[in-house]
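ARCHIVE ENTRY
Sequence with per-residue tokens
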Amino acid sequence: MVHTVVDSSANQVETDDSGNDGAQTPPPPEPAKTAEHVTIRGIWSQFLDLPVSGDADQTLRYGGKADAYIDVKGSAVGIDDSLSLHVHPEFKYGKSSNGEIGLIPENSQLFYPGDGDVFDLSINVTKRWKSGASLTVGKINILDLAALTPLQGGGGHEGFQNLAVALPPSAIVPGSVTGALINVPTEKVLLRAIIFDPELQSRRSGLEDPFSKGVGILASATFPVRVGGKRGYYGIKFAGSTRSEVAAESLPAALVPGPGSSFGNRKGEFSVILTVDQYLSEDAAVPGNGIGIFGQLYLSNGDPTFLDASGFIGIAGNPKKRPQDRFGVTYFRYSLADGLVDALRNRIPLQDEEGVEAFYTVGLAKTLRLTGNLQIVDSAISPRAVGITTGLRLTALF
């Protein structure tokens, strides 16, 4: 099973309105248990998936993921509320079809934070200024940032499940990082930067051997615009690190080059990402609802980064006649670095991985949603046949 690393600085530009600085998961609209100084939110998703075509065993698999989001204001300990503590415990259990068809995990929530029944904990502290700027320091779950993206977002609890879209892989920014994140929102642009340890921090405190493999940075600028009166968000991101080895913890053992390989020895990596989220229609009766197109283009300089190019495009939104529902369809394609493909040529034949994912979510109640999911994937492992996976997801908010 592949541990894919990611690059996602969510295209959330309504920071001043939402009060969310992007370092935390988007709060469910209801319910939220709030005391004077503490807010607690929770989300629990249960998954069934079944490969129905391809080389994978046609076995029904069940798993689940529960996340809690605890926010403590500074006034709880007698200091200013411009300081706050965020605690995110998460627990994953059960089985999934991840790795059975494609290299990219088909279920993001059942991929992180690791194999089997796994608990993880992220803790960070945020300082906010009256200007709307914020600084977050600590262990940050990048999947929470991806969940904020306007159209394709959801992080796997909502929306798309395949990591290719729910948390777009880049092989530079891990899915869980230790570092500092700064957001600077203005009327014309949201500026964001993350300085982080490039080693994956899942099931780690982040303090064991910080920055021993180098330092990474992700910087982004997201521009809110209106096209034909409809909201749009257009972004550019730059990610890089001083790492001088392939991210072995992010690849299955079969794809890790052996000692003396010609791949994974160059110091430093760099990538550029272009993003777009553009609404085509908006529902005036339900603010925030609408239908739009989204996409991303990613390019890197390769070695030691094991992905050199990727992209996806899709459409998602809320049917006007059922505003509580949501749907989405996307096509994605990911390319392993040519140097890695050449280095592994005698071990395993590789190609680009591409696929299609479609979902429809039925809002059963304000706190309960049922989603049907379909994925068709042509694996990066050349001998594998095109595979089709069907699934159901039941998500409850607390």
